[in-house]
Target: PH domain-containing protein
Amino acid sequence: MICKPKRIHPIGVILTFIKRLKDLVLPAIFILFVGSEGMIKTILTIGFIVLIFALLVGSFFSWMKFTYRIEEGEIRIEYGIFVKKKRYIPIERIQNINESAGIIQRLFKLVKVEIETAGGGMEAEVGLAAIRREDADLIREVVALHKKGNSIQENDEQQVVENTSFRMRVKDLIITGSTSSGVGVVLSAGFALVSQLDDIIPLEEIFSHIHIPEDTSMTIYLLLGIGILIIAWILSMVGVLIKYAFFTVKKVDDDLIITSGLLEKRQSIIPKNRIQAIRVSENVIRQFFGYATVYIESAGGNLENPTSSTMLFPVVKKKLIPQLLSEFTPEFTWQNNFNKLPKRSMRRYLFRAVMPWIIIAIPLCIFFQPWGYFSLLLILLGSLNGYFSYKDAGWSIVDNQLVMRFRKISKTTVFMHKKRMQLIEYRTSFFQKRAKLQTISTTIKAGIAGSRYLLKDVEEEDVRKIEEWYRVEK
Model:
Protein backbone atom coordinates (compact mmCIF):
# COMPACT_ATOMS: atom_id res chain seq x y z
CA MET A 1 0.00 0.00 0.00
CA ILE A 2 1.28 3.50 -0.87
CA CYS A 3 0.53 5.15 2.47
CA LYS A 4 3.29 7.75 2.51
CA PRO A 5 2.86 10.77 0.21
CA LYS A 6 5.01 10.42 -2.89
CA ARG A 7 6.07 12.90 -5.56
CA ILE A 8 6.38 12.17 -9.22
CA HIS A 9 9.88 11.96 -10.70
CA PRO A 10 11.79 15.31 -10.84
CA ILE A 11 11.64 15.15 -14.63
CA GLY A 12 8.01 16.09 -14.10
CA VAL A 13 9.21 19.69 -13.71
CA ILE A 14 10.38 19.70 -17.33
CA LEU A 15 7.23 17.95 -18.57
CA THR A 16 4.99 20.46 -16.80
CA PHE A 17 7.08 23.35 -18.16
CA ILE A 18 6.86 22.01 -21.75
CA LYS A 19 3.12 21.54 -21.41
CA ARG A 20 2.64 25.13 -20.26
CA LEU A 21 5.11 26.44 -22.84
CA LYS A 22 2.95 25.13 -25.69
CA ASP A 23 0.37 27.80 -24.91
CA LEU A 24 2.98 30.49 -25.62
CA VAL A 25 3.89 29.37 -29.15
CA LEU A 26 1.52 31.76 -30.92
CA PRO A 27 2.45 34.78 -28.73
CA ALA A 28 6.13 34.02 -29.40
CA ILE A 29 5.54 33.96 -33.16
CA PHE A 30 3.66 37.24 -32.89
CA ILE A 31 6.50 38.92 -30.99
CA LEU A 32 9.26 37.63 -33.26
CA PHE A 33 7.64 38.15 -36.65
CA VAL A 34 4.65 40.44 -36.36
CA GLY A 35 5.18 42.60 -33.31
CA SER A 36 6.09 46.26 -33.32
CA GLU A 37 9.61 47.50 -33.88
CA GLY A 38 11.95 49.42 -31.61
CA MET A 39 11.41 49.89 -27.90
CA ILE A 40 7.96 48.27 -27.82
CA LYS A 41 9.30 45.06 -29.35
CA THR A 42 12.22 45.06 -26.89
CA ILE A 43 9.83 45.43 -23.96
CA LEU A 44 7.62 42.61 -25.30
CA THR A 45 10.65 40.35 -25.76
CA ILE A 46 11.92 41.01 -22.21
CA GLY A 47 8.44 40.41 -20.83
CA PHE A 48 8.21 37.17 -22.76
CA ILE A 49 11.56 35.98 -21.33
CA VAL A 50 10.44 36.87 -17.81
CA LEU A 51 7.21 34.95 -18.39
CA ILE A 52 9.12 31.86 -19.47
CA PHE A 53 11.30 32.06 -16.36
CA ALA A 54 8.14 32.43 -14.22
CA LEU A 55 6.66 29.35 -15.87
CA LEU A 56 9.81 27.37 -15.08
CA VAL A 57 9.76 28.46 -11.43
CA GLY A 58 6.03 27.75 -11.21
CA SER A 59 6.53 24.28 -12.69
CA PHE A 60 9.13 23.53 -10.03
CA PHE A 61 6.88 24.57 -7.13
CA SER A 62 3.93 22.72 -8.68
CA TRP A 63 6.08 19.59 -8.64
CA MET A 64 7.14 20.23 -5.06
CA LYS A 65 3.56 20.62 -3.83
CA PHE A 66 2.07 17.68 -5.76
CA THR A 67 1.89 14.38 -3.85
CA TYR A 68 -0.16 11.22 -4.17
CA ARG A 69 -0.84 8.17 -2.04
CA ILE A 70 -3.28 5.28 -1.70
CA GLU A 71 -4.87 5.01 1.72
CA GLU A 72 -8.11 3.62 3.16
CA GLY A 73 -9.49 2.61 -0.23
CA GLU A 74 -8.82 6.01 -1.81
CA ILE A 75 -6.29 7.66 -4.09
CA ARG A 76 -5.44 10.90 -2.33
CA ILE A 77 -3.94 13.82 -4.25
CA GLU A 78 -2.62 17.02 -2.69
CA TYR A 79 -1.48 19.97 -4.79
CA GLY A 80 -1.49 23.76 -5.07
CA ILE A 81 1.21 26.43 -4.66
CA PHE A 82 -0.64 29.20 -2.86
CA VAL A 83 -3.84 27.35 -1.99
CA LYS A 84 -3.41 23.76 -0.88
CA LYS A 85 -6.01 21.48 -2.47
CA LYS A 86 -6.92 17.89 -1.70
CA ARG A 87 -8.70 15.38 -3.88
CA TYR A 88 -9.82 12.00 -2.53
CA ILE A 89 -10.98 9.49 -5.13
CA PRO A 90 -12.60 6.20 -3.99
CA ILE A 91 -11.05 3.24 -5.78
CA GLU A 92 -14.44 1.78 -6.65
CA ARG A 93 -15.08 4.84 -8.87
CA ILE A 94 -12.03 4.10 -11.02
CA GLN A 95 -13.03 2.99 -14.52
CA ASN A 96 -9.71 2.74 -16.28
CA ILE A 97 -5.96 3.18 -15.83
CA ASN A 98 -4.02 4.23 -18.94
CA GLU A 99 -0.26 4.24 -19.31
CA SER A 100 1.92 5.99 -21.87
CA ALA A 101 5.59 6.77 -22.21
CA GLY A 102 6.86 9.56 -24.42
CA ILE A 103 10.47 10.06 -25.45
CA ILE A 104 11.38 11.86 -22.21
CA GLN A 105 9.73 9.25 -19.98
CA ARG A 106 11.38 6.39 -21.85
CA LEU A 107 14.82 7.98 -21.50
CA PHE A 108 14.41 7.82 -17.71
CA LYS A 109 12.48 4.49 -17.71
CA LEU A 110 9.33 6.17 -16.44
CA VAL A 111 5.65 6.06 -17.42
CA LYS A 112 2.75 8.48 -17.46
CA VAL A 113 -0.38 7.23 -15.69
CA GLU A 114 -3.89 8.59 -16.24
CA ILE A 115 -6.75 7.40 -14.04
CA GLU A 116 -10.29 7.75 -15.36
CA THR A 117 -13.33 7.62 -13.11
CA ALA A 118 -17.07 7.32 -13.60
CA GLY A 119 -18.32 10.81 -14.41
CA GLY A 120 -14.78 12.13 -14.46
CA GLY A 121 -15.61 14.89 -16.93
CA MET A 122 -13.61 16.18 -19.87
CA GLU A 123 -10.19 14.95 -18.75
CA ALA A 124 -8.61 12.22 -16.64
CA GLU A 125 -9.36 12.54 -12.92
CA VAL A 126 -5.73 11.88 -11.97
CA GLY A 127 -2.64 12.44 -14.11
CA LEU A 128 0.80 11.33 -12.94
CA ALA A 129 3.19 12.68 -15.56
CA ALA A 130 6.29 10.64 -14.65
CA ILE A 131 6.47 7.79 -12.13
CA ARG A 132 8.47 4.59 -11.91
CA ARG A 133 7.15 1.46 -13.60
CA GLU A 134 7.11 -0.29 -10.22
CA ASP A 135 4.84 2.40 -8.75
CA ALA A 136 2.50 2.24 -11.74
CA ASP A 137 2.24 -1.54 -11.42
CA LEU A 138 1.59 -1.22 -7.70
CA ILE A 139 -1.23 1.30 -8.27
CA ARG A 140 -2.87 -1.02 -10.78
CA GLU A 141 -2.43 -4.00 -8.49
CA VAL A 142 -3.92 -2.22 -5.49
CA VAL A 143 -6.91 -1.05 -7.52
CA ALA A 144 -7.53 -4.51 -8.97
CA LEU A 145 -7.34 -6.29 -5.63
CA HIS A 146 -9.44 -3.67 -3.85
CA LYS A 147 -12.20 -4.14 -6.39
CA LYS A 148 -12.04 -7.88 -5.80
CA GLY A 149 -12.44 -7.31 -2.07
CA ASN A 150 -8.89 -8.29 -1.20
CA SER A 151 -6.06 -6.44 0.50
CA ILE A 152 -2.42 -6.16 -0.44
CA GLN A 153 0.80 -5.73 1.46
CA GLU A 154 3.74 -3.83 0.02
CA ASN A 155 5.98 -6.87 -0.29
CA ASP A 156 3.40 -9.46 -1.33
CA GLU A 157 4.18 -11.17 -4.63
CA GLN A 158 1.14 -11.45 -6.87
CA GLN A 159 0.96 -13.88 -9.74
CA VAL A 160 -1.04 -12.81 -12.76
CA VAL A 161 -1.89 -15.41 -15.37
CA GLU A 162 -1.92 -14.27 -18.96
CA ASN A 163 -4.74 -16.13 -20.70
CA THR A 164 -4.11 -15.20 -24.33
CA SER A 165 -2.36 -12.59 -26.44
CA PHE A 166 -2.35 -11.08 -29.93
CA ARG A 167 0.56 -9.34 -31.63
CA MET A 168 0.15 -7.33 -34.80
CA ARG A 169 2.36 -8.55 -37.62
CA VAL A 170 4.52 -6.19 -39.68
CA LYS A 171 2.46 -7.11 -42.75
CA ASP A 172 -0.78 -6.08 -41.06
CA LEU A 173 0.87 -2.91 -39.74
CA ILE A 174 1.79 -1.90 -43.30
CA ILE A 175 -1.76 -2.66 -44.47
CA THR A 176 -3.11 -0.49 -41.64
CA GLY A 177 -0.98 2.45 -42.72
CA SER A 178 -1.53 2.10 -46.46
CA THR A 179 -5.33 1.75 -46.19
CA SER A 180 -5.99 4.33 -43.48
CA SER A 181 -8.18 7.38 -44.06
CA GLY A 182 -5.57 9.77 -42.65
CA VAL A 183 -4.80 11.36 -46.04
CA GLY A 184 -7.62 13.84 -45.55
CA VAL A 185 -6.33 14.72 -42.09
CA VAL A 186 -2.83 15.36 -43.45
CA LEU A 187 -4.17 17.53 -46.28
CA SER A 188 -6.39 19.50 -43.87
CA ALA A 189 -3.45 20.05 -41.52
CA GLY A 190 -1.27 21.14 -44.45
CA PHE A 191 -3.79 23.68 -45.71
CA ALA A 192 -4.32 24.99 -42.18
CA LEU A 193 -0.56 25.39 -41.72
CA VAL A 194 -0.21 27.23 -45.03
CA SER A 195 -3.07 29.57 -44.10
CA GLN A 196 -1.35 30.38 -40.81
CA LEU A 197 2.04 30.90 -42.45
CA ASP A 198 0.46 33.31 -44.90
CA ASP A 199 0.10 35.83 -42.07
CA ILE A 200 3.81 35.53 -41.20
CA ILE A 201 5.61 34.67 -44.44
CA PRO A 202 4.73 36.66 -47.59
CA LEU A 203 3.73 33.63 -49.66
CA GLU A 204 2.07 35.71 -52.38
CA GLU A 205 5.26 37.68 -52.94
CA ILE A 206 7.32 34.48 -53.07
CA PHE A 207 4.99 32.82 -55.59
CA SER A 208 4.90 36.00 -57.69
CA HIS A 209 8.58 35.42 -58.51
CA ILE A 210 7.89 31.87 -59.68
CA HIS A 211 7.28 31.84 -63.40
CA ILE A 212 4.55 29.46 -64.60
CA PRO A 213 4.25 29.27 -68.41
CA GLU A 214 0.85 30.35 -69.67
CA ASP A 215 0.63 27.31 -71.94
CA THR A 216 0.99 24.93 -69.00
CA SER A 217 -1.38 22.07 -69.71
CA MET A 218 -3.98 20.60 -67.40
CA THR A 219 -1.82 17.45 -67.30
CA ILE A 220 0.85 19.31 -65.32
CA TYR A 221 -1.66 20.46 -62.74
CA LEU A 222 -3.09 16.94 -62.57
CA LEU A 223 0.35 15.45 -61.98
CA LEU A 224 1.02 18.08 -59.31
CA GLY A 225 -2.22 17.16 -57.56
CA ILE A 226 -1.36 13.47 -57.71
CA GLY A 227 2.08 14.23 -56.27
CA ILE A 228 0.52 16.10 -53.33
CA LEU A 229 -1.83 13.17 -52.69
CA ILE A 230 1.08 10.69 -52.76
CA ILE A 231 3.07 12.79 -50.27
CA ALA A 232 0.01 13.07 -48.00
CA TRP A 233 -0.50 9.28 -48.26
CA ILE A 234 3.13 8.61 -47.31
CA LEU A 235 2.95 10.99 -44.33
CA SER A 236 -0.32 9.41 -43.22
CA MET A 237 1.21 5.94 -43.50
CA VAL A 238 4.28 6.96 -41.48
CA GLY A 239 2.04 8.43 -38.78
CA VAL A 240 0.03 5.21 -38.51
CA LEU A 241 3.18 3.09 -38.38
CA ILE A 242 4.58 5.20 -35.55
CA LYS A 243 1.29 5.13 -33.62
CA TYR A 244 0.59 1.39 -33.87
CA ALA A 245 4.11 -0.06 -33.91
CA PHE A 246 4.52 -3.06 -31.55
CA PHE A 247 0.74 -3.30 -31.16
CA THR A 248 -0.20 -6.09 -28.75
CA VAL A 249 -3.36 -7.17 -26.93
CA LYS A 250 -3.16 -9.33 -23.82
CA LYS A 251 -5.99 -10.81 -21.83
CA VAL A 252 -5.03 -11.00 -18.16
CA ASP A 253 -7.77 -12.33 -15.91
CA ASP A 254 -10.77 -10.12 -16.74
CA ASP A 255 -8.74 -7.24 -18.20
CA LEU A 256 -7.63 -6.44 -21.73
CA ILE A 257 -4.20 -4.77 -21.88
CA ILE A 258 -3.55 -2.92 -25.15
CA THR A 259 -0.03 -1.63 -25.85
CA SER A 260 1.28 0.28 -28.88
CA GLY A 261 3.55 3.08 -30.02
CA LEU A 262 7.05 3.68 -31.30
CA LEU A 263 7.95 7.20 -30.12
CA GLU A 264 5.31 7.26 -27.38
CA LYS A 265 4.47 3.90 -25.90
CA ARG A 266 0.86 3.79 -24.72
CA GLN A 267 -0.88 1.15 -22.63
CA SER A 268 -4.60 0.95 -21.92
CA ILE A 269 -6.21 -1.47 -19.50
CA ILE A 270 -9.89 -2.13 -20.13
CA PRO A 271 -11.78 -4.18 -17.51
CA LYS A 272 -14.31 -6.64 -18.85
CA ASN A 273 -17.21 -4.96 -17.06
CA ARG A 274 -16.50 -1.63 -18.84
CA ILE A 275 -17.01 -3.03 -22.34
CA GLN A 276 -20.35 -1.75 -23.63
CA ALA A 277 -20.22 -2.90 -27.25
CA ILE A 278 -17.98 -4.22 -30.02
CA ARG A 279 -17.83 -2.29 -33.28
CA VAL A 280 -16.40 -3.70 -36.52
CA SER A 281 -15.60 -1.17 -39.24
CA GLU A 282 -14.71 -1.94 -42.87
CA ASN A 283 -13.74 0.96 -45.10
CA VAL A 284 -14.06 0.45 -48.84
CA ILE A 285 -10.42 -0.46 -49.44
CA ARG A 286 -10.09 -2.83 -46.49
CA GLN A 287 -13.40 -4.51 -47.29
CA PHE A 288 -12.20 -5.19 -50.83
CA PHE A 289 -9.15 -7.05 -49.47
CA GLY A 290 -11.10 -8.83 -46.71
CA TYR A 291 -9.81 -6.78 -43.74
CA ALA A 292 -11.61 -4.96 -40.95
CA THR A 293 -10.92 -2.88 -37.83
CA VAL A 294 -12.36 -3.93 -34.45
CA TYR A 295 -13.15 -1.35 -31.75
CA ILE A 296 -14.17 -1.63 -28.12
CA GLU A 297 -16.80 0.85 -26.97
CA SER A 298 -16.27 1.28 -23.24
CA ALA A 299 -17.65 3.34 -20.39
CA GLY A 300 -15.81 6.47 -19.35
CA GLY A 301 -13.84 8.89 -21.49
CA ASN A 302 -12.09 12.25 -21.36
CA LEU A 303 -11.23 15.22 -23.56
CA GLU A 304 -8.55 13.31 -25.49
CA ASN A 305 -10.87 10.38 -26.16
CA PRO A 306 -14.42 11.66 -25.69
CA THR A 307 -16.02 8.66 -27.38
CA SER A 308 -13.96 6.15 -25.38
CA SER A 309 -13.59 4.07 -28.53
CA THR A 310 -10.46 1.90 -28.36
CA MET A 311 -8.96 -0.13 -31.18
CA LEU A 312 -8.87 -3.78 -30.24
CA PHE A 313 -7.44 -4.89 -33.60
CA PRO A 314 -6.35 -2.06 -35.98
CA VAL A 315 -6.46 -4.37 -39.00
CA VAL A 316 -7.27 -8.06 -39.06
CA LYS A 317 -8.59 -10.55 -41.59
CA LYS A 318 -12.37 -10.56 -41.28
CA LYS A 319 -12.51 -14.35 -41.28
CA LEU A 320 -10.39 -14.37 -38.09
CA ILE A 321 -12.69 -12.02 -36.13
CA PRO A 322 -15.08 -14.73 -34.83
CA GLN A 323 -12.18 -16.66 -33.30
CA LEU A 324 -10.55 -13.53 -31.84
CA LEU A 325 -13.79 -12.34 -30.27
CA SER A 326 -14.32 -15.76 -28.68
CA GLU A 327 -10.83 -15.54 -27.15
CA PHE A 328 -10.77 -11.91 -25.99
CA THR A 329 -14.45 -10.96 -25.58
CA PRO A 330 -16.39 -14.25 -25.36
CA GLU A 331 -19.51 -12.44 -24.13
CA PHE A 332 -19.97 -11.07 -27.67
CA THR A 333 -20.92 -13.56 -30.39
CA TRP A 334 -20.11 -13.07 -34.05
CA GLN A 335 -23.13 -13.18 -36.33
CA ASN A 336 -23.33 -13.74 -40.09
CA ASN A 337 -27.08 -14.21 -40.56
CA PHE A 338 -28.91 -10.88 -40.72
CA ASN A 339 -32.50 -9.86 -41.25
CA LYS A 340 -32.45 -7.69 -44.37
CA LEU A 341 -34.44 -4.55 -45.03
CA PRO A 342 -37.53 -4.76 -47.28
CA LYS A 343 -37.10 -3.95 -50.98
CA ARG A 344 -39.21 -0.80 -50.68
CA SER A 345 -36.50 0.66 -48.44
CA MET A 346 -34.01 0.72 -51.32
CA ARG A 347 -35.49 3.73 -53.08
CA ARG A 348 -35.24 5.76 -49.85
CA TYR A 349 -31.55 4.86 -49.49
CA LEU A 350 -30.91 5.78 -53.13
CA PHE A 351 -32.76 9.09 -52.79
CA ARG A 352 -30.80 10.17 -49.68
CA ALA A 353 -27.49 9.22 -51.29
CA VAL A 354 -28.07 10.84 -54.69
CA MET A 355 -29.92 14.11 -53.97
CA PRO A 356 -26.97 16.06 -52.44
CA TRP A 357 -24.81 15.27 -55.47
CA ILE A 358 -27.57 16.27 -57.90
CA ILE A 359 -27.83 19.65 -56.17
CA ILE A 360 -24.04 20.10 -56.50
CA ALA A 361 -23.79 18.77 -60.06
CA ILE A 362 -26.49 20.97 -61.66
CA PRO A 363 -24.74 24.36 -61.18
CA LEU A 364 -21.35 22.82 -62.03
CA CYS A 365 -22.71 21.51 -65.33
CA ILE A 366 -24.29 24.88 -66.16
CA PHE A 367 -21.49 27.28 -65.24
CA PHE A 368 -18.29 25.22 -65.69
CA GLN A 369 -18.65 23.52 -69.05
CA PRO A 370 -17.22 21.19 -70.19
CA TRP A 371 -15.33 20.20 -67.01
CA GLY A 372 -18.49 20.47 -64.94
CA TYR A 373 -19.89 17.40 -66.65
CA PHE A 374 -17.42 15.30 -64.69
CA SER A 375 -19.53 16.06 -61.60
CA LEU A 376 -22.10 13.63 -63.00
CA LEU A 377 -19.73 10.90 -61.86
CA LEU A 378 -20.54 11.97 -58.30
CA ILE A 379 -24.17 11.06 -58.91
CA LEU A 380 -23.07 7.62 -60.07
CA LEU A 381 -20.86 7.16 -57.00
CA GLY A 382 -23.71 8.35 -54.77
CA SER A 383 -26.05 5.81 -56.37
CA LEU A 384 -23.57 3.01 -55.71
CA ASN A 385 -23.11 4.11 -52.10
CA GLY A 386 -26.89 4.25 -51.61
CA TYR A 387 -27.37 0.79 -53.09
CA PHE A 388 -24.66 -0.82 -50.97
CA SER A 389 -25.91 1.04 -47.87
CA TYR A 390 -29.27 -0.62 -48.43
CA LYS A 391 -27.78 -3.99 -49.26
CA ASP A 392 -25.50 -4.10 -46.19
CA ALA A 393 -28.07 -2.83 -43.67
CA GLY A 394 -29.65 -5.39 -41.36
CA TRP A 395 -30.14 -6.63 -37.81
CA SER A 396 -29.95 -9.83 -35.82
CA ILE A 397 -30.82 -11.05 -32.33
CA VAL A 398 -28.98 -13.90 -30.63
CA ASP A 399 -30.09 -14.55 -27.05
CA ASN A 400 -29.40 -11.25 -25.21
CA GLN A 401 -27.34 -9.70 -27.99
CA LEU A 402 -28.54 -7.26 -30.65
CA VAL A 403 -26.42 -6.82 -33.77
CA MET A 404 -26.95 -3.85 -36.10
CA ARG A 405 -25.22 -3.42 -39.43
CA PHE A 406 -25.27 -0.26 -41.53
CA ARG A 407 -23.13 1.80 -43.90
CA LYS A 408 -22.42 5.48 -44.45
CA ILE A 409 -19.19 5.14 -46.37
CA SER A 410 -17.58 2.46 -44.23
CA LYS A 411 -19.54 -0.67 -43.39
CA THR A 412 -20.16 -0.87 -39.62
CA THR A 413 -21.37 -3.78 -37.49
CA VAL A 414 -22.19 -3.17 -33.81
CA PHE A 415 -22.64 -5.91 -31.19
CA MET A 416 -24.61 -4.85 -28.09
CA HIS A 417 -25.92 -6.69 -25.03
CA LYS A 418 -29.40 -5.88 -23.79
CA LYS A 419 -28.15 -5.03 -20.31
CA ARG A 420 -25.65 -2.53 -21.76
CA MET A 421 -28.20 -0.66 -23.87
CA GLN A 422 -29.25 2.54 -22.15
CA LEU A 423 -32.02 3.46 -24.55
CA ILE A 424 -33.80 2.20 -27.64
CA GLU A 425 -36.09 4.48 -29.67
CA TYR A 426 -38.34 4.09 -32.68
CA ARG A 427 -39.12 6.98 -35.03
CA THR A 428 -41.44 7.25 -38.00
CA SER A 429 -41.51 10.13 -40.47
CA PHE A 430 -44.53 10.96 -42.63
CA PHE A 431 -43.08 9.16 -45.66
CA GLN A 432 -41.91 6.19 -43.60
CA LYS A 433 -45.41 5.81 -42.17
CA ARG A 434 -46.87 5.53 -45.66
CA ALA A 435 -44.31 2.83 -46.49
CA LYS A 436 -44.75 1.07 -43.10
CA LEU A 437 -41.10 1.64 -42.18
CA GLN A 438 -39.38 2.90 -39.03
CA THR A 439 -35.95 4.01 -37.81
CA ILE A 440 -34.37 2.27 -34.83
CA SER A 441 -32.01 4.23 -32.56
CA THR A 442 -29.95 2.60 -29.80
CA THR A 443 -27.75 4.31 -27.22
CA ILE A 444 -25.05 2.75 -25.05
CA LYS A 445 -23.13 4.25 -22.15
CA ALA A 446 -19.81 4.87 -23.90
CA GLY A 447 -17.62 7.95 -23.69
CA ILE A 448 -18.72 11.24 -22.17
CA ALA A 449 -22.06 11.62 -23.96
CA GLY A 450 -22.75 8.00 -24.95
CA SER A 451 -22.70 6.41 -28.40
CA ARG A 452 -25.76 6.24 -30.62
CA TYR A 453 -26.43 3.96 -33.60
CA LEU A 454 -29.17 4.25 -36.22
CA LEU A 455 -30.72 1.70 -38.55
CA LYS A 456 -33.09 3.39 -41.00
CA ASP A 457 -36.16 2.12 -42.85
CA VAL A 458 -36.74 -1.13 -40.98
CA GLU A 459 -39.91 -3.15 -41.52
CA GLU A 460 -42.54 -2.24 -38.91
CA GLU A 461 -43.05 -5.90 -38.04
CA ASP A 462 -39.31 -6.32 -37.42
CA VAL A 463 -39.31 -3.23 -35.19
CA ARG A 464 -42.04 -4.83 -33.06
CA LYS A 465 -39.86 -7.97 -32.70
CA ILE A 466 -36.88 -5.92 -31.49
CA GLU A 467 -39.11 -3.96 -29.11
CA GLU A 468 -40.53 -7.14 -27.63
CA TRP A 469 -37.05 -8.64 -27.23
CA TYR A 470 -35.80 -5.53 -25.46
CA ARG A 471 -38.71 -5.38 -23.02
CA VAL A 472 -38.65 -9.03 -21.99
CA GLU A 473 -36.54 -9.60 -18.87
CA LYS A 474 -33.73 -12.10 -18.99
Observations:
- Residues 343-389 form one domain.
- The chain has a mean pLDDT of 81.
- The longest strand covers residues 309-317.
